Amino acid sequence: MRKTALVLALPLFFTPVLGFDVAKLNAKKAVPYEQKTQEFRLPVGIDENGVIDEAKLGDSPYAKTVIYGAKLINETTRYLGPQAKDEKMRFAGNNLSCSSCHTSGGVVPDQSPFVGIYARFPQYVARSDQLVTLQDRINGCFQRSMAGRAIPTNSKEMRAMIAYMHWLSAGYEVGAKVRGQGLPKAQFLDRAADPKKGREIYAAKCAACHGENGEGIKNEAFAQNGDYYTFPALWGDDSYNTGAGMYRLIEGARYVKATMPKGDASLSWEEAFDVTAYINSKPRKIKPDRKKDFPDLDVKQMDMDVGPYNDGFDENDHRFGPYKRMIKK
After folding, report:
1. What's the number of domains the chain is made of?
2. Biggest alpha carbon distance in the chain?
3. CATH no. for residue 147?
4. What is the mean pLDDT of each run of 10 residues along the chain (329 residues)?
5. Could you say which of 16, 166, 195, 278 has the lowest number of CB atoms within 10 Å?
6. CA separation for the pair 164, 285 (Å, rounded)
7. For the whole model, what pTM was predicted?
């Protein structure tokens, strides 16, 4: 009996307490100063739709650079993507714009805004497990969400985008947080996300704008001005690749919950997770070397669907959840 009791106790005693380590991530993100939280506000000269009144900015070199930066953010493919006249300027690999994810040029709270962002860099990023600059972060988007290549960090275009974000951050203290920055915190489901349910949600609430096949709706007036898409492509070669944050289920669901349907963000968390799982089950460009992402397995995001892992769950678990069980206790 004693032998039996000992054998039964061993697995419980030696069960590894592994998984996503929230405490370790917070420690890595920690800064040696008090982080104040400031209210969300826009500078004079831009409205809540991201439209700049150029007359209010003036014609100084700074103002002109900010205005150019806004154009790069809102009409990315015209200047830096497949539609750029100069082939050497085609850094983006698809026709999305920065505004495809950062709503209205990054001026809408809880929809990945740029307001105050200049004051929050450099910052620790778990994906590379190192401190990164704002230029690094922009280039990460160009290589992942835009499925392209990095922009030279001292180029006219990079300086313009940085200037635009600097202007949107004027008046914020260095290191300050901003109410409405980022996306809403996810509310995890008690089940795995279901792409089949997501397909029904997509047909009912998404296809009218993004197309039955996720192809998006193009802007018929693009030749004159504006963004390439009225509603962006969600899968296929003209969408984000598998290395983008949107391709990870938790991150994608947070964005969908905050923004969709456009103008009426009314999906439940269950709907957001399911429809995101469906969208990300569709084909898209593959980002190479994803195994190199999140080198510290303790803080590897739970929705990263490429191993290795240290928690005993497989790629399917990480892709669809449920995620509460993956958090280190």
Report:
1. 2
2. 87
3. 1.10.760.10
4. 40 56 97 96 98 97 98 98 98 98 98 98 98 98 98 98 98 97 97 98 98 98 96 98 98 98 96 98 97 98 97 97 95
5. 16
6. 29
7. 0.93
